[in-house]
Amino acid sequence: MEYNLNKSNVYRTVKKIEKILIDSEEFKLPVKKILTKNTEESQIKTIVVDVTETEVERPKKKQKQNYSGKKKKHTIKSQIVIDEKNSQILCIAQGKGKEHDFNLFKNSKMLINHLLEILGDKGYQGINKIHKNSQIPFKKLPKKELTQEQKKSNKQLGKKRVIVENVIGKF
């Protein structure tokens, strides 16, 4: 506010600088390394992934890229990966408002140890194809109901995943 900049300009500048630093390979995010370590070395066994949207000022150009049909506003998506046990944020990836949650996950190119368990929501349909040790809720098929066992499984998963919703709510 002091410098008369809007959120979207600041976001673009931060992303450019972050990309330059990461491409130089002299700048590393230390927490991301935890995700690639063996689970014996690391205390982390399960990570929880979710996306939140932050409203931004309507851009003058390329408005469709930032427009979220879900929120009916121009937004930036932030994917948050946390440790299930202690709610520590392990890494964050950002994308345009129109980008799908699972596409944001794939485009973030996070290297995750295959032994780590990933808990996601229905926005991560298909994550099992790229990371076998992952859990997402069962999705109701058209004209069919979920079984009691599937409903129970979804409820248990929701209780584990609520931790990421609480972390997001603090922002």
Kindly describe this structure.
- With 171 residues, the chain is α/β, with parallel strands linked by helices.
- The protein has one domain.
- Helices cover 35% and strands 21% of the residues.
- It contains 6 helices and 6 strands.
- The chain has helices spanning 7-23, 30-34, 63-66, 101-107, 127-130, 148-169, and strands spanning 46-55, 67-68, 73-83, 89-96, 117-119, 134-135.
- Strands 1, 2, 3, 4, 5 and 6 form a 6-stranded mixed sheet that branches.
- Helix 5 links the parallel strand 5 (117-119) and strand 6 (134-135).
- The longest helix has 22 residues, at 148-169.
- The radius of gyration is 18 Å and the shape is globular.
- The two termini are 19 Å apart.
Question: Largest sheet, if any?
Answer: 6 strands, mixed
- What coarse outline follows from CA principal-axis ratios? globular
Number of domains: 1
Whole-angstrom Rg: 18 Å
**Mean pLDDT across residues:** 81
User: What share of the residues lie within helices?
Assistant: 25-40%
| Structural class label | alpha/beta
Tell me what portion of residues adopts beta-strand conformation.
15-25%
What is the number of beta strands? Answer: 6
Q: Low-confidence parts, pLDDT < 50 over ≥5 residues?
A: none
Order of helices and strands: HHEHEEEHEHEH
What distance lies between the first and last C-alpha atoms, to the nearest angstrom?
19 Å
Number of helices: 6
